[in-house]
Amino acid sequence: DIVVAVLDTGSPSTSSSAWASSNFIDGGADFYDYDFDPTDPDALSDDLKVTSHGTHVATTIGAKNDGKDINGFGVKVLPLRVLGPDGGSTYDILQAMLYSAGLPNDTGTVAPTSEGPIKVINMSLGIEAYKVGYCGYTDVINDVINQGVTIVAASGNEALENPGGASYPAACDNVISVGSIDTTGARAPYSTYNNSVDIAAPGGNMGIDEDGDGYGDGVAAYIRNEDISFLQGTSMASPHVAGALALLHSVDSGLNPTEIDTYIREGKFTDDIGPSGRDDEYGYGALNLS
Predict the structure, then answer these.
(1) Residue 264: helix, strand or coil by DSSP?
(2) Residue 76 in contact with residue 68, Cβ under 8 Å?
(3) pLDDT given for residue 134 in this prediction
């Protein structure tokens, strides 16, 4: 009964295989068009070149462990649309964060709790910066954290073009910044690394085929209403951490963001890879719940 709020491009339609195969819940909202239908128009497309980023991220977290197609973390997902064809605004993202945490926002209402409390917000999004600096999310982040909600965000995919750069909100204080590892266990070449990275998780690398199955080693999830495919990115790594944290909340209902931060720093559910201790590529280590 733990819910992860996914702030992204939106969800598949409620009549789709993607929806039926995952633990989506009603009550989502669209902060791009400001209504209460979070459906991503791209999820409805028949164009094989079109991908619903939000559907892929959400089904990575919410796919049911029923042995069909893909297995996710089986936790509940509340889809919130904050990105559209021309990206999104920080303001709209902040409003969705407030909505998720049960705080006043422009909709005049808050996320439902009938399916369980929202304990994690996943944001596989960001604005790249060339150095760590001003975070425009600070006040809302602190308000959300004070509500007992943990915030997880993708570190970014600009390592090749911007070594040591940063992406916000991942680089903000009190946000768990997630870097990406590939199937070799090494940092994926694109994964942004800096002193804000807290943890690494599987994000895929379409440039290799480690298992020799003829497909690039991306992360498999729904990309449209009826279609599953592989994608790569820290966007794919972040939902692995968000799903894992939701599982921890399901074991310990009193768990709070400060305790989760301590667990990460103490390596309670990570493998220390790379240099000993925290490092800029893998943070405190690679996700491992076993």
Answers:
(1) helix
(2) no
(3) 78
Whole-angstrom Cα distance, residue 216 to residue 231? 9
* pLDDT tens-digit series, residues 162-212: 898 999 999 999 999 999 999 999 999 999 999 999 999 999 999 999 989
Q: Residues 6 or more apart from 229 whose CB is under 8 A from it? A: 51, 56, 218, 220, 221, 223
Q: Indicate yes or no: pTM above 0.85.
A: yes
Phi, psi (rounded to 5 degrees) for 253? -65, -15
Q: Is the peptide bond before 169 cis (omega within 30 degrees of 0)?
A: yes
- With a CB cutoff of 8 Å and minimum separation 6, the contacts of 161 are none
- Report, as ranges of residue numbers, the positions in the chain whose pLDDT lies below 70: 130-133
Active site residues: 8, 53, 235
Spatial distance between the Cα atoms of 200 and 234, rounded to a whole number of angstroms: 9
